[in-house]
Amino acid sequence: MISHNRAKKKMEKLRSRKAILVSQYASAACHTQFICKGHPIHTRFKPESSFP
Prior knowledge:
Elements: H1 4-8, H2 17-25, E1 32-36, E2 39-44
Antiparallel strand pairs: 1-2
């Protein structure tokens, strides 16, 4: 049984080891998003290329 206070608390940062590793080691060309219960937790956009 989950405590009501814990259930109401929103996740604000990455907690799982796999999500942390993916966010650290994914290619810079990748656009990554982590979503928990419909709320974005972490987003990394593909950087804009400075080359024409």
